[in-house]
Design brief:
alpha/beta, globular, about 350 residues
Length: about 350
């Protein structure tokens, strides 16, 4: 496979505040993303994969009820992915993005969904974010919150989907997923060679650490990690430049190959060499210090520890729809109290 170009569109997104402006704002945001992809083609030519950030066509605005979010949300496939599919087909590329999703098969539930559209214009992968309720600031459902029924309907592969394409085996994970090493590891163990990570990260004391986590996730799993952050959210109660940018392409050896070092509108470009990645993954050790964590992983050793850990449960919202972040915060508090009572966690002395 020949090396190919990729483009991470760190866009400035108009925010839907008034639900009545939904369609006009989505159209405006999509049009700008498409303009930037076209500009990248004029500049570089051989681009085979483009992506945009989490909340890239709706922005982020809170507080909102689940009902309001569902009024803004899309179906996948749906109108937005059809528009993206037409662009992907016209250019002959894969395009990855992120939407809030409503699904008539799951009434009353909101999903944070990342997707990949093929050069034929079809949605070929749909990933619903797992680690959203865990960060206690939104009201979308994760597949594990309805685990038993979700697996019954779609099978276990739907929890960590990957797709084989002519540009490699691709997968998606979103924003807070980067904090949990098990996420990227699950995709790596399923053979993912490129992990697409749409995110929306404001300035915060710990977010420099998130940059290190991106590098770690790529290195641990010998994969490319493409992380595309929001450049700015326009027209909302948030600071215009409140999002830190730093969209980046990380190599399978954990090196930052290309980065937008500031917030604002930017397109980060780079080249992926899948054959070189496959050589790394399949080389057999002939000397010391030839590490391959996908091969040397002692999964049987770690599995019992995870099984006994008793942390965030599956199926917690199986019988009721998540409505407010008060519910997730109450669950987190209950888990902490239980771990304190068990002696697993120790309280501070002051």
């Amino acid at each position: 496979m020949k090396p190919y170009g990729v483009a991470l569109v760190q866009q400035e997104t108009r925010v839907i505040v008034d639900v009545r402006q939904r369609d006009e704002i989505i159209e405006s945001n999509l049009a700008r993303i498409f303009e930037l992809i076209d500009w990248t083609f004029l500049r570089l030519g051989n681009v085979k994969l483009a992506m945009f950030s989490e909340y890239g066509i709706i922005g982020q605005y809170r507080p909102r009820s689940v009902e309001e979010w569902l009024a803004i949300a899309e179906t996948v496939p749906g109108d937005v992915t059809e528009r993206i599919g037409a662009k992907a087909k016209a250019l002959g590329i894969h395009i990855s993005g992120n939407v809030f999703e409503r699904d008539p098969d799951w009434p009353g539930r909101l999903f944070n969904t990342s997707f990949i559209v093929s050069p034929e214009g079809r949605v070929i992968l749909k990933y619903r974010k797992h680690n959203g309720p865990n960060n206690l600031n939104t009201t979308y459902t994760g597949p594990a919150d309805v685990y038993t029924e979700y697996v019954r309907r779609y099978g276990e592969d739907a929890l960590f989907p990957t797709v084989d394409t002519e540009i490699g085996r691709l997968s998606c994970m979103s924003c807070t997923d980067i904090v949990f090493p098990e996420m990227a590891r699950a995709f790596g163990l399923k053979g993912a060679e490129v992990i697409l990570h749409p995110t929306a990260e404001p300035y915060a004391p710990d977010h420099d650490t998130w940059d290190a986590l991106r590098q770690a996730r790529a290195y641990e799993n010998l994969c490319y990690l493409l992380s595309c952050n929001a450049g700015a959210f326009l027209g909302s109660n948030r600071p215009r430049m409140g999002y830190r940018g730093r969209s980046m392409i990380v190599s399978p050896l954990g090196r930052v190959e290309s980065i937008a070092t500031a917030p604002g509108e930017a397109v980060v470009t780079g080249t992926l060499d899948i054959d070189a990645l496959r050589s790394l993954r399949t080389r057999k050790p002939e000397a010391g210090h030839v590490f391959n964590s996908l091969v040397e992983l002692r999964n049987d050793l770690f599995a019992p520890v995870y099984q006994r850990a008793g942390r965030w449960p599956n199926d917690h919202w199986a019988s009721t729809e998540l409505q407010t972040t008060a519910e997730t915060r109450a669950l987190a508090a209950a888990i902490i109290d239980r771990l304190l009572a068990q002696g697993n966690l120790a309280p501070p002395e002051r």
